[in-house]
């Protein structure tokens, strides 16, 4: 089945809904008698049958919109000239195979066809001279082949499509973690339900809303929730579906889409990944794409041609707003831009509640702790996390998801698959000291996140891992916190040098050193947290997500300033390394005990780690002493 033949195929999971019967007339009981197809139908009779409804004919399935979904409003307005229709489940006669239906069609025995359920079911009226009444049969269709529509037109058969009710199955209750965006869209729903409430005082209904945010944050889900709440037709497609190798096809699809939208107003048009068609014109290397630019021009024209009260609202989603054409973003086309970012701790907890609604959780599972352990996770990541945990629980023969399954799933998603445990030996001992060094230095440095667990179980490329539990708001970080993270990152190398000697330092700290250097450089060049002063020492274009912009960025930094930056970065890293080595020297006995326990158990929880460490040192006092020593080193 070709993509161009799928004009009524929906991308959302819509339940099967009945088409509304807009007729009050009494229908005759369909016959159940067996029908034999007549040998022929006169050309004059076939030519006399004309289509009274033009919904499918205006769709133009030969041009096809790809995966465009259209749904019908709950309170549909029937055309006065339209004849009575019968829903597919109201047909009591026998079913007919698709091949047999084609035989009747070729023989000229098909009088009328009504398409239901997005073109997958047809109710067919057959005309047989041997019967005195209309015979209706139900046919299951393989989608909506373009050949079938052309054949119906050639035969002069009256046909029409009956879109489903606008039940996407999703409401605002299913959307969590993006409260600000939900508030904006609840206003859009009010526009669609009661436009006179706003137009009576001179307000203009927004023509377009642009959703901006990283992948997986719920942009598409929000658009479906609007359609589910407002009860209006919902047209959904991706920006890439407009683009073809043949020039002019994309522009034709845009015209067709908006023609159907205006015919079904009030309605919603959702364009996902609009950057595929809405990129800035003439900005690419090697010239523009004629087909893409013609499609964009047509899209701009259609959005500009709307009347203020047309009832058609365009919602688009992108994670690359910086590459969109400025003409597309101006008021009058996309009047509003709604940011849908990664959720915070509270948002992640709300999202987890939604995704855990159909899952059996152990009473010991705290969704708040899970939310704290998953900074940077999007809504899609959290859904995947809980699904992985459920699969893992089933694999282990459990009837509930426990903390163990959730922890293992987080480790798998973040660090990779679990590897084979190391055998006892020097390598395992060195890795144990390395990881305990991270945990010890982080715990004793004020401002660092708490240790969540330390493990010697390999994952991905890492031989061992130390996990930390982020604070309430990891997006707003102080200078003390960044310095503490640098100290914790250098704790592994510090343990190697103090315990085994500098010649025994290994390459295991390569990743740590890269992260530490990057954090220190950001302190100097981005955050203004060095002796150079509060300067922004990098061009904004050098941090752009566009590769071309980074290539063309001009760095106006002098050689002396570059040397000063390198010197300031080195100073931060050196003093953090001194603090880390001092922690290891002062707490060597506690470190040896922790390593012995870790070698035996292979995994230490944060509580177990702190309980053992507290037997040797007052953690609070040590943190205060570290703060004082850091001030002396800085001075």
Descriptive report:
One of its GO terms (molecular function) is ATP hydrolysis activity. Residues 1-46 are annotated as: Disordered. Keywords: ATP-binding, Chloroplast, Hydrolase, Membrane, Metal-binding, Metalloprotease, Nucleotide-binding, Plastid, Protease, Thylakoid, Transit peptide, Transmembrane, Transmembrane helix, Zinc. Residues 205-344 form the AAA+ ATPase domain. With 635 residues, the protein is of the alpha/beta class. It has helices at residues 43-48, 55-59, 98-106, 146-154, 179-193, 196-199, 219-230, 249-263, 290-304, 326-329, 345-355, 367-372, 379-395, 403-415, 426-444, 479-500, 510-525, 547-552, 559-586, 588-601, 606-614, 619-634, and strands at 95-96, 110-116, 121-126, 135-140, 158-161, 208-212, 234-238, 267-272, 312-318, 336-339, 450-455, 465-469, 603-605. Strands 1-4-3-2-5 form a 5-stranded mixed beta sheet. A 5-stranded parallel beta sheet has the order 7-8-9-6-10. Strands 12-11-13 form a 3-stranded antiparallel beta sheet. The longest helix has 28 residues, at 559-586. The relative contact order is 0.07. Residues 1-93 have low confidence and may be disordered.
Largest sheet entry: 5 strands, mixed
Distance between the termini: 74 Å
| Oligomer category | single chain
Number of helices: 22
Note the beta-strand portion. 5-15%
The strand order across the widest sheet is 1-4-3-2-5
Average pLDDT reading: 77
Binned, the helix content reads 40-55%
Low-confidence stretches: 1-93
| Cα-based radius of gyration, to the nearest Å | 33 Å
Outline, from the CA principal axes? elongated
What structural class should be given to the helix and strand makeup? alpha/beta
Secondary structure: number of strands: 13
């Amino acid at each position: 089945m070709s993509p161009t033949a799928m004009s009524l195929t929906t991308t959302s999971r819509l339940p099967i809904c009945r088409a509304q019967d807009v007729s009050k007339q009494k229908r005759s009981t369909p016959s159940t008698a067996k029908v034999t197809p007549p040998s022929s139908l006169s050309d004059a009779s076939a030519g006399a049958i004309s289509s009274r409804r033009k919904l499918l004919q205006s769709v133009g399935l030969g041009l096809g919109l790809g995966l465009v979904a259209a749904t019908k409003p709950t309170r549909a307005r029937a055309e006065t000239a339209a004849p009575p229709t019968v829903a597919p489940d109201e047909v009591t006669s026998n079913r007919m195979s698709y091949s047999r239906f084609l035989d009747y069609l070729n023989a000229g025995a098909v009088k009328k066809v009504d398409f239901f359920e997005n073109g997958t079911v047809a109710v067919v009226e057959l005309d047989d001279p041997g019967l005195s009444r209309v015979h209706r049969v139900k046919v299951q269709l393989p989608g909506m082949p373009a050949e079938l529509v052309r054949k119906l037109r050639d035969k002069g058969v009256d046909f029409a499509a009956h879109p489903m009710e606008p039940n996407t199955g999703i409401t605002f209750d299913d959307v969590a973690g993006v409260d600000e965006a939900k508030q904006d869209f609840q206003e859009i729903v009010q526009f669609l339900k009661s436009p006179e409430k706003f137009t009576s005082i001179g307000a203009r209904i927004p023509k377009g809303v642009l959703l901006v945010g990283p992948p997986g944050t719920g942009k598409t889900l929000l658009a479906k929730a609007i359609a589910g709440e407002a009860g209006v037709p919902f047209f959904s497609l991706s920006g890439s579906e407009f683009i073809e190798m043949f020039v002019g096809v994309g522009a034709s699809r845009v015209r067709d889409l908006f023609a159907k939208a205006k015919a079904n107003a009030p309605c919603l048009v959702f364009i996902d990944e609009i950057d595929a068609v809405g990129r800035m014109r003439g900005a690419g290397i090697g010239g523009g794409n004629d087909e893409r630019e013609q499609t964009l021009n047509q899209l701009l024209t259609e959005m500009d041609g709307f009347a203020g009260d047309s009832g058609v609202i365009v919602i688009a989603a992108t994670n690359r707003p910086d590459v969109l054409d400025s003409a597309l973003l101006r008021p009058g086309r996309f009047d509003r831009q709604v940011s849908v970012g990664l959720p915070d701790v509270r948002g992640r907890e709300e999202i987890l509640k939604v995704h855990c609604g159909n899952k059996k959780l152990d009473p010991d599972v705290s969704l708040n702790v899970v939310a704290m352990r998953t900074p940077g996770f999007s809504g899609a990541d959290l859904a995947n996390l809980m699904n992985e945990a459920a699969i893992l629980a089933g694999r282990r023969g459990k009837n509930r998801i426990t903390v163990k399954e959730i922890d293992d799933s987080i480790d798998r998603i973040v660090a990779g698959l679990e590897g084979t445990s190391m055998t006892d030996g020097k390598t395992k001992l060195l890795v144990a000291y390395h990881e305990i060094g991270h945990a010890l230095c982080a715990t004793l440095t004020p401002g660092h996140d708490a240790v969540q667990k330390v493990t010697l179980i390999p994952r991905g490329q890492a031989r061992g891992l130390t996990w930390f539990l982020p604070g309430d708001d990891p997006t707003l970080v102080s200078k003390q916190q960044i310095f503490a993270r640098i100290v914790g990152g250098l704790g592994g190398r510090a343990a190697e040098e103090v315990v085994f000697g500098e010649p025994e330092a290994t390459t295991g700290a390569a990743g740590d050193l890269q992260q530490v250097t990057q954090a220190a450089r950001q302190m100097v060049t981005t955050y203004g947290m060095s002796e150079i002063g509060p300067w922004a020492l990098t061009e904004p274009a050098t941090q752009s997500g566009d590769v071309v912009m980074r290539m063309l960025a001009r760095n106006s930094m002098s050689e002396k300033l570059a040397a000063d930056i390198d010197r300031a970065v080195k100073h931060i890293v050196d003093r953090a390394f001194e603090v880390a080595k001092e922690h290891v020297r002062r707490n060597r006995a506690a470190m040896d005990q922790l390593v012995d326990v870790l070698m035996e158990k292979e995994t230490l929880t944060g509580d177990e780690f702190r309980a053992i460490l507290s037997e040797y040192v007052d953690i609070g006092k040590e943190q205060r002493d570290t703060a004082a020593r850091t001030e002396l080193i800085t001075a």
